[in-house]
Amino acid sequence: GNGGFFWACCAFLSWQSTYTSPPPQLSPALLSWHSGGASFTFRGNSIFYRESYGAVGSSDVVILLHGFPTSSYDWNKIWEPLNQRFNRVIALDFLGFGFSDKPRPHRYSIFEQASVVEALVSHLGLSEQRVNLLSHDYGDTVALELLYRTDHNRTGHLNINSLCLSNGGIFPETHHPRILQKLLKDSSFLSPVLTRLINFMLFSKGLGDVFGPYTQPTDAEFLDMWTGVRFNDGNLVMDSILHYLNQRLEHRDRWVGALTSTVIPVHMIYGPLDPVNPHPQFILHYQRLVKRSTVSVLDEHISHYPQLEDPTGFLNAYFSFINAF
């Protein structure tokens, strides 16, 4: 499909000196997101997180796990409404994403990201507290590893009260990564060149493809996402992070097994226009395998980023799940 366009961009970019282009400045919106957060140290790396105290009289905690290649800022449109329902709302930028450190070379893995989440929960003094996980895309896979550890009573595990997934490629068999992801993840000789060449134009085209036609981000929103990637030279670690696509295949039985065997309440919020997890194959497969889970399919024009494309529909679906038990 988009292969020709991709190579045309590469040709165009190769004479453009993107090697030296400075990372974009933080917009006022990102600056305020950043200044409203804090960080803690995990194995020598700084991890950015945000937490706010919301609903009084509730002890409920929700932890938000973002997707690839973006950051905790993906939750900004639903942050306030979540604060009206939960006592504590917590989001982090995974290692290699957003405002967190992006070490290189580094072997990025889903297992390590799950340990980052456990370390944050412990740092915040919530190890004994029941937590609700709300995840998206890459975060879905991290959530499944956390679920596995909880259900197998692993040291340091979370006390998971509920899990809500959204638009994650949790089944390698129904998952269609974008061409750029395929090229990067196999770390061919090309990928160091490609990672340096992905500039804003190519990034917005690639990301725009996974938003619905009526719910495209504004230029300012695309720029905020790109700024999050470029912060701490994150564009240079994308290929290492993308090994998670191979990990998902390799550990499919562990992660899908955790999902199909758990007795913890599980929900899936799904934007059906998602080219990464196509409708109806993905959701039919999900319902066939994950019999205990409930499902919310959003409007037909909502795609891969439902919490940004339809924050109201997303919240309604999430609250009706959370309030049902």
Alpha-beta classification: alpha/beta
> What is the global morphology?
globular
Helix content: 40-55%
Distance between the termini: 44 Å
Instruction: Provide the residue-averaged pLDDT.
Output: 93
The total count of helices amounts to 15
**Beta-strand percentage range:** 5-15%
Largest sheet: 8 strands, mixed
Q: State the low-pLDDT regions, or none.
A: none
Strand order of the largest sheet: 1-2-4-3-5-6-7-8
What's the gyration radius in Å?
Answer: 19 Å
Written as H for each helix and E for each strand, in order along the chain, the element string is HHEEEHEHEHEHHHHHHHEHEHH
Number of strands: 8
Task: Give me some keywords for this one.
single chain; 325 residues; alpha/beta; 8-stranded mixed beta sheet
Please tell me about this protein's structure:
This protein has 325 residues and is of the alpha/beta class. It has 15 helices and 8 strands. The protein has helices at 3-14, 28-35, 79-85, 110-123, 138-151, 179-185, 191-197, 200-208, 219-230, 238-241, 244-250, 252-261, 281-289, 306-309, 311-322; strands at 38-42, 45-53, 61-65, 88-92, 130-135, 159-166, 266-270, 294-297. An 8-stranded mixed beta sheet has the order 1-2-4-3-5-6-7-8, with helices on both faces. α4 (110-123) packs across α5. It is globular, with a radius of gyration of 19 Å. 42% of the residues are buried. GO terms for molecular function: monoacylglycerol lipase activity. One of its GO terms (cellular component) is endoplasmic reticulum membrane.
